[in-house]
Amino acid sequence: TKNAGFSKDVCRSMVAMMDVDRSGKLGFEEFKALWIDIRQWKAVFKLYDKDGSGCLSPFELRQALNSAGYRLNHHILNILAHRYSSKNGLISFDDYMMCAVRLKAMIDMFKERDPDNSNTATFTLEEWVERTLYS
Length: 135
What we know:
mainly alpha, 61% helix, Recoverin, domain 1, globular, single chain, 6 helices, two-stranded antiparallel ribbon, calcium ion binding
């Protein structure tokens, strides 16, 4: 429902995304950075939820993610639309936030392991499992 707050899963993912020291909590600076992201993602959602329904179509999701700075190919955008849309094919605000949080976490994690911008990152299996489970 509108203005009911975020689901527990979205909240957990938000904390995990910003929890640099893996303490399970956010310090003030971590929270401030998260708040900036939340405000940006919310503004983008409102911009593309043209009818005010509280949902985005897969096409609007593409536009919203592009506007939020995510440059993703058609294949990845299709995967995201299928993963985060409900049975009616629409993406709720909560699901959009989960999508944005997870995308940011994964991209940040990748960039951390790709210091020379070669578009290649290296992880051990243990590191990959830890990072993907705690996101």
